[in-house]
Amino acid sequence: MSARLESRGTPGRILDVSERLAQTRGFNGFSYADIAGELDVTKASLHYHFATKAVLGRVLIARYHEVFAGLLGQIDASTTSAAEKLRRYVGLYRGVLVNDRLCLCGMIAAEHATLPKPMQGEIRRFFTANEAWLAAVLEQGERDGELHLRGTSLEVARLLLSALQGAMLVARSYRSVARFDVSAKRLLASLAAEPRTSRGIKPRAR
Amino acid sequence: MSARLESRGTPGRILDVSERLAQTRGFNGFSYADIAGELDVTKASLHYHFATKAVLGRVLIARYHEVFAGLLGQIDASTTSAAEKLRRYVGLYRGVLVNDRLCLCGMIAAEHATLPKPMQGEIRRFFTANEAWLAAVLEQGERDGELHLRGTSLEVARLLLSALQGAMLVARSYRSVARFDVSAKRLLASLAAEPRTSRGIKPRAR
DNA sequence: GTCTATAGGTGGATAGAC
DNA sequence: GTCTATCCACCTATAGAC
Prior knowledge:
The structure is a homodimer. The two termini of chain A are 26 Å apart. The longest helix of chain A has 27 residues, at 117-143. Chain A is mostly helical. Chain A has a single domain (5-191), classed as Tetracycline Repressor, domain 2. Chain A is 68% helix and 0% strand. The mean pLDDT of chain A is 94. Chain A has helices at 10-25, 32-39, 43-49, 53-78, 82-97, 104-110, 117-143, 153-173, 177-189. Chains A and B meet through helix 6, helix 7, helix 8 and helix 9 of A and helix 6, helix 7, helix 8 and helix 9 of B. Chain A binds a DNA duplex through helix 3.
């Protein structure tokens, strides 16, 4: 997430700036004027590419979701251990937080009541997709004897997603990535198959 | 939290309305005009009681913190079991969520970057106070053999606070209190000294 | 595709009468 | 303490020239 290159083309650059502003200030916390100022174009020009802010918001979430899904695919493709997948998943969130951002969808979820209906639906889709991916990883981990779930995979996945979103929210208030790290570590540790290792998940196979 | 009576007096009523609006729409999601409309007074009248919105925000958080601290005091005074204290703490959050609100400070934390500095500090104070209360309860629970922490009490307290904030955030996107309940239940279960799930036997190292 | 110019609305905030 | 009236900055959005 943090390593993604800058987009080329005007629409892509508009989305890049909007995304950063939305993740730091919220969807209602930035304006077309803010984007225009950063890109040295006029507000009218922005309206040519994204007719209304509601449209911009929907495209923003759709692209975010798409990119995120791609990253999860990369994790799946290059990682075998479920515990390691989870660590890399946490790493994605961490990469967002170190840039003083929140997850786009976590941030926008806070503004839920003020959003156009289509955006609300897109956010749920993002959450649901994340929960499904996490649930699959958790099930794999349990099958492999690497993880021990104390509930259904979906329940644990939902707790995991919620807890990470909350950990980012609170940690950012303190400007402390360390706070996030500690909470994330405890979360993963609670899923480890061997309760005696309080330091983290089972060491990865080398 | 959910059972608190309406305040008397104009300043109190202004704060009541502002609090609800801030918890549902965010601090940047409501205006003096919104408050004025609900209370049938003019914007000018609001400015008499709270000169600027920044002042209103600070008083809002201060009052919220005060009331919340009072509720924690009530829990301490009327509950002996640490596990039961935690359940009642979770109940406070639940009571907020069923009214389609988020914790005032969780909500405002999302808007962190757009807030006046004094408000940012007040939010951290609220979080820190919650963490301290939780840590004390957790320590009591471990002493009593009721809870088993897999980390320092402060670390676990921080995870607990973050996870509950996140659980509210996500659950509200789905308008589903059940989602919150499940996550909260799993969280508390992970702290129980003896897991009494249907799986029965304490997990052992393989 | 990008610009200038502007419409029409709402934001927080103030002056001064009552 | 509450009102009317107003200021000015900013918001989203559009019309029309280039």
